[in-house]
Amino acid sequence: MALSIIRAEPAPGGIIADRRLFLSAGRERVLEETATDIAYLLASPGTLIPAADVARHGLRVVDGRIEYGPVQQVGEVANADAGNVGDGENDGGQAQTPPPAQPAKPRKKK
Predict the structure, then answer these.
(1) Ramachandran category for residue 82: left, alpha or beta (phi over 0 → left; psi -120 to 50 → alpha)
(2) Could you tell me the strand order of the sheet in which 30-31 lies?
(3) What does the alpha-carbon distance between residue 48 and residue 15 come to, in Å, rounded to a whole number?
(4) 3 state SS of 55
(5) Measured over all CA atoms, what is the biggest interatomic distance in the chain, rounded to whole angstroms?
(6) Which residues face 10 on adjacent strands?
């Protein structure tokens, strides 16, 4: 049995998947196979992801690999905001920003 390397590529009617991709229970987030909240299989390597699903989930091909989540603008550095929590992988690429810290209350003198 030979090992085949599949590169994601645009195809008529969608994108050819380079790896297994999954969806969350609400089908709103794309997940990797390491996620714990997988509910549905979106694609397996070599299968066509229909254009409707490509558009719905914001999928794109970058250097032969399917990417999803917010598009990084030129000049941005990945994870530049150290205040973000979430690993960007199991949360569908959507890092969550914590609420701002509350100022400390002054102590009352006794």
Answers:
(1) alpha
(2) 30-31, 21-23, 40-43
(3) 6
(4) helix
(5) 79
(6) 15
* Sequential DSSP letters for 25-54: TTS-SEE-TT-S---EEEE-TTPEEEHHHH
Measured in residues, the chain has a length of: 110
- 10: Cβ–Cβ under 8 A, 6 or more apart, which residues? 16, 61
> What is the spatial distance between Cα 32 and Cα 54, in angstroms, rounded to a whole number?
16
pLDDT digit string, tens, across residues 60-76: 999 999 999 877 666 65
Low-confidence residues of the chain: pLDDT under 50: 78, 80-87
pTM assigned to the model: 0.60
The number of angstroms, rounded, from the C-alpha of 79 to the middle of its chain's C-alpha atoms is 13
Question: Which token pair is 108?
Answer: 């009352």
Q: Give the whole-angstrom CA distance, residue 80 versus residue 3.
A: 37
Task: Name the 3-class secondary structure at 88.
Answer: coil
Are residues 23 and 39 in contact, defined by beta-carbon separation less than 8 angstroms? yes
